[in-house]
Amino acid sequence: MKQMSPREIVEELDRYIIGQQGAKKAVAIALRNRHRRKLVSGEISEDIYPRNIIMIGPTGVGKTEIARRLAKMVNAPFIKVEASKFTEVGYVGRDVDSMIRDLTETAVRMVKQEKMEEVQDKAEQLAEERILNYILPPLRKKSRSNRNPLEVLLGTAQEPAADSEHEARAAEIERKREILAQKLKRMELEQEIVEIEVEERSTSFMEIFSGSGVEEMGVNMQEMMGNLMPKGTRKSKVTVEEARKILAFEEAQRLVDMDVVKREAIHRVENDGMVFLDEIDKIAGKDSSNGPDVSRGGVQRDILPIIEGSTVVTKYGPVNTAHILFIAAGAFHVSKPSDLIPELQGRFPIRVELDSLNREDLKRILTEPHHSLIKQYVALLATEGLQLDFEEDAVDCIAEIAYEVNARTENIGARRLHTIMEKVLEDLLFETAHAGAAGMRIDRSYVEERLQKIVKDDDLSRYIL
User: Fold this and answer.
1) Between 187 and 334, where is the model more confident?
2) What is the model's pLDDT at position 208?
3) pLDDT at 263 over 90
4) 10 Å Cβ neighbour count for 408?
5) Which of 166, 285, 313, 366 has CA atoms 20 to 30 A from the CA of 126?
6) pTM value?
7) What is the mean pLDDT of residues 217-225?
8) 3-state secondary structure (DSSP) of residue 440
9) What's the mean pLDDT when you consider all of the chain?
10) Residue 115: per-residue pLDDT
11) CA 216 to chain centre
12) Residues 250-283 as b or e (16 or more Cβ within 10 Å = b)
């Protein structure tokens, strides 16, 4: 992030998302402003709040993908939530605080993974030592159980004479262990079977029945019960190669200081966290007077303090939401952004309208992105020896049909391409495993042959495409 300017952020997004330059520019500026805030010295930095964004546009035009790629680009804690899943406080369902708890959980996993990678070399070394002990444990010192307890108590007991046979055996085992250690380092025993002890993690009673109510009190019941109850172990026979992975993971977890992980995770959430609030248009508008609709005005009022900046108690500690970046999105077919309560509108000062996709956009989506849809299908079928080759006129035809069906039925944007591609390649995807290695050229006539009947029949296209 330190090296990426807003222009470079947009260029990186262009690799995955076609068009929507206005939305890309807005999120790039918002992201860069977060970095700029960190460089500001003094108390003024605390008063520089993120400029939250609301994206307005039909489904399938890239709203979610822009936010997801943005978070992945900067390795920031990110979650996507649907506003329609929340209910007003006091009703059965998810409360809005849960989005911050989920975000914190994501951050803890991210930081823990990073810390485990930092100690990976040490963990692998300890795992190798454990494998050596499982294969050939060292000889324990000779037992002193036959000594007179009274002499031990009075301090008059004599040390037993050294057993030369025992020492010779211990020295022989130590030599064998050194040879085995060298073989383990050279990866010569990877396919040998070894019996190891691994920690057994069973789903606890508290894990099943403790809900967000306990979490709101800042209590991690699972962790508390885990500290009281000893961890169980079980024996497992695996190859040395698998044992390395299992034991290295266990050792890495032991080496990581979870208190440090929690503190860093909370810091990241508060300064770099991103929440993508989808389907915000579903909670816009006035409450229904015909029934108990608890997913509109009440939810908006509950979301407002989270976005304005409040403290949410999680099982890892309190999290301040003042500097979390919120990106909301909605199609707003029925409602309008102005139907949101005025206070909530004010917390989304940046509004971006995304364009509907035309034929050219759909064609570019099929071919240009880094992992475009056509590249995905080519890679899938190549695994079974079938080499697909799409002619340009076939791509044109798919884009035209997708645009036509979107215009006649529900406009689901680029998602229509998934439906059409699956229908076009249905026979190939079904028969490839038995057809053997071959090449296949997809041209316009091939596409039309499989789709023309469906496209002409409006009723069929509604259900199939």
Assistant:
1) 187
2) 45
3) yes
4) 13
5) 166
6) 0.75
7) 54
8) strand
9) 80
10) 92
11) 24
12) bbbeeebeeeebbebbbebbbbbbbbbbbbbbbb
Both tokens of 232, joined, read 């169980």
pLDDT digits (tens, 9 = 90+) for 347-369: 888 888 888 888 898 888 888 88
Using CB atoms within 10 A of its CB, is residue 152 exposed (0-12), middle (13-18) or buried (19+)? exposed
Residue 108: pLDDT band (50, 70, 90) is very high
- CA distance linking residue 403 with residue 360, whole number of Å: 9
Chain position carrying tokens 């546009």: 57
Q: Which of 276, 301, 332 is nearest to 87 (CA)?
A: 301
For strands 193-200 and 232-239, give the pairing. antiparallel
User: What residues pair up with 351 in beta bridges, in sequence order?
Assistant: 54
Q: Any residues with CB less than 8 A from the CB of 99 and at least 6 apart, and which?
A: 79, 81, 275, 277, 306
Give the whole-angstrom CA distance, residue 166 versus residue 212.
59
> What residue spans of 220-257 are helical by DSSP H?
221-228, 240-255
Helix then strand then coil, in percent of the chain rounded to 5, is 55, 15, 30
Q: Which helix (H) or strand (E) holds 25?
A: helix 21-39
Q: Element (H or E) spanning 55, and its range?
A: strand 53-56
Tens of pLDDT along 12-45?
Answer: 888 888 888 888 888 888 888 888 888 888 788 8
Own/partner pairs, 157-165, CB within 8 angstroms, 24+ separation: none
- Cβ of 214: how many Cβ atoms within 10 Å? 15
Q: What does the radius of gyration of the chain's CA atoms come to, in whole angstroms?
A: 31
Length of the chain: 465
Containing 413, the helix (H) or strand (E) segment is: none
Can you list the positions of beta strands (E) in 201-358? 232-239, 274-278, 311-314, 317-320, 325-330, 350-353
Q: Which of 374, 452, 366, 456 is nearest to 414 (CA)?
A: 366
Residue with tokens 């023309």: 452
Q: For residue 277, how far is the Cα from the chain centroid?
A: 16
The residue type at 24: K
**Predicted confidence (pLDDT) at residue 104 exceeds the cutoff of 90:** yes
